[in-house]
Every structure is written in structure tokens, then in C-alpha cells.
Amino acid sequence: MRGRLSRRRDAAADASGAARSREPLRTPTPPGEGPTYRHLGQLVGFVMRLGTREVWDDAAALPPQGEGVLVVANHVSYLDVLAVGRYLIWSGRWPRYLGKAELWNVWPIGWLGRRCRQIPIDRYTSRAKDGLANARAALEAGECVAIYPEGGRTRDPELWPQRGRTGVARLALATGVPVIPVGHWGTHEVMPGRRLTVPRVWPKRTIRVVMGDPVPLDDLIGRQDDAAALREATDRIMEAITRQVEDLRGERRPPAGVWDGTKGGRHSPS
């Protein structure tokens, strides 16, 4: 009996979450923003509804427009940016993604990135600090900045979040804005692997996106130049993201630790 009731509740939640993703775009265009981002969002919405089934929660932790917020998510597929971006836009915020600068050399990605005021970052170079400075300015201006803290798609063979990079923590500790963890699951079934592929749209795959409470970082704010504080903040952020993914997958994290791409295996997150 209890199992049937649980399944009914899950089915009702799925129906509600799927209905929310089918709603029209009502999020106001931010002041000073041109029409490109809105048109792109509407196009992405049409394509995602056509090719996938999206199930969202209510994004209750997301602050309203005008308040700076740092959104962090797991990264398993090329489709993640569209899936999470659409979820955030339909939830009331227009994200400014922090993405690898190489993409800005690819047409039309670079053109769209500039028109939609996305933020390029030259990873692993001395110019990376310029991208972080632009992201910090956006946060201090009350915008929503979205980042994949892993620095790229996870290399964990089981697609769990891998060890995070500390750039996201540096932004969080320098600005004090809320850090909101987002977990998603299902994009890898539409666009699997580490190379661009033709999306698998039949039968329709389900993409689920959920949001957690702000990551507790108050005790570390202002310590963005302290390596130990950066590592601690990054690990807390990744743990919060992983909890969202665990809920979606209905599994417990394997006990052997976190995948570390620099070492090619699971290790303690500390």
C-alpha cells in the first residue's frame, strides 16, 4: 500500500513538473538586453519540448531578478547548457554562462555568446582571471551567473560529478552571493559521449532538473585568497550538487570517493 502511494505521489510530481516545462516563456527581458537572448530561449524551448520530456521542480531557491546569484550544476553532456539554461530562464532568471573561450571562435556559438552577453574564460591561462573578473562584475550587478564547477564534462565512468575546480569558490567567497546547486539527469541519454553526436530523440528521453538550497558558505566569505578555504568551499559546492544528482538517480554515491580527472581515478575529495 505504501509503495503504491509513493508511486502515485511520484507520478503526480512528474506530471506537475512536466506541465511547468510546457508553459510559455513569461520571464521579463532584463533592462538593456536585446531581443536575441529571448528569441534564442524561445527556439530552444520549442526544440526541447519537441525532442524530449522535461520534468522540473519549482526552483524555489532561485532569487528574483535583480539579486546576484551563482548557479552551479553537474556536467554530463553537450546538451546540459540548453537543458539547465532553459530551466533557469523559465524559472525567472536569464543566466550568463561562464564558458571556455574556444567556443567564441566557433560560428554561430561565438556570435550568440556575444549577443547574449555570455562570459568567455581562457581556462588554464593567466587570462582566466579576466573571465572571473567579468563574472564577478555581473554578480555584483545583480545578475545570474551559471557555472559548471567541474571545468568540463565529467570523466567519471559512472557519470557522477567529478572533483570541482576552485574558480567558482573564488567568485562565491569574493561576492557573498548565494550559491544554488542544480542537479539534472537524462541529457546524456539524448547526447551521450564526449563528442558531438546527432541527438537521440526517439523514443523521447526524460530530462529531470532539480534545485537545492543555497550552499552554506558564510563562514568562508572573504577568504578568496586562502587556498584551504577555496578547496573547502569547492568541496561543499560539489557535495551539494552531488546530493541533487543522487536524488534524481535514486542511488547512493559509490563509497570510493570522488573522481579526480588529474589523477584518473577516485580519491578523497579533501
UniProtKB/TrEMBL annotation:
Pfam families: Acyltransferase
GO molecular function: acyltransferase activity
UniProt cross-references to InterPro entries, sorted A to Z: Plipid/glycerol_acylTrfase
The UniProt record lists the keyword Coiled coil: no
Disordered as annotated region, ranges: 1-35, 247-270
Limits of the Phospholipid/glycerol acyltransferase domain: 69-187
Alphabetical UniProt keywords: Acyltransferase, Transferase
Record bears the keyword Isomerase: no
Entry protein name: Lysophospholipid acyltransferase family protein
Species this chain originates from: Propioniciclava soli
